[in-house]
Design a protein that fits this description.
The protein is α+β, with helices and mostly antiparallel strands and about 130 residues long. The chain has 5 helices and 7 strands. Strands 1-5-6 form a 3-stranded antiparallel β-sheet. A two-stranded antiparallel sheet has the order 2-3. Helix 1 packs across helix 2 and helix 4 runs antiparallel to helix 5.
Amino acid sequence: AAAGARPIGTAGQPGKGTKATVLSSEFIELARHKPLELARALLRCFRSWASAGFLLDDFKAQQFTLDGRGDVYLVDGPSLLRAFPVGEAVYRATSHHLLFRGKLEKYAAKLKEAKSDEERRKYAAKVA
């Protein structure tokens, strides 16, 4: 995690899951004013460990931090994806994940070159 990053929120009753999570004011501000940037930051965070074969199965707001640039980080290490039955199935189904990297770059380039709104929507869906 980046220096100075703060948790995106805290659980109302840590470990119990019965009270609502309270999100940080920074997270709420980013969600209100820059929702696409926040969505991209969350996707980058999840992609960084999920594409490497890890699975987080106990989501809590305090496991994630948000830095001043709007980047989100996981501070609680995820488990190896293949340690879970569903993870093993996902791993087998997507073990060619290196091919996805090439597709992501390909569609990101096409998105940049898109001329119409229809083309932009088409390639944005493939990159997200």
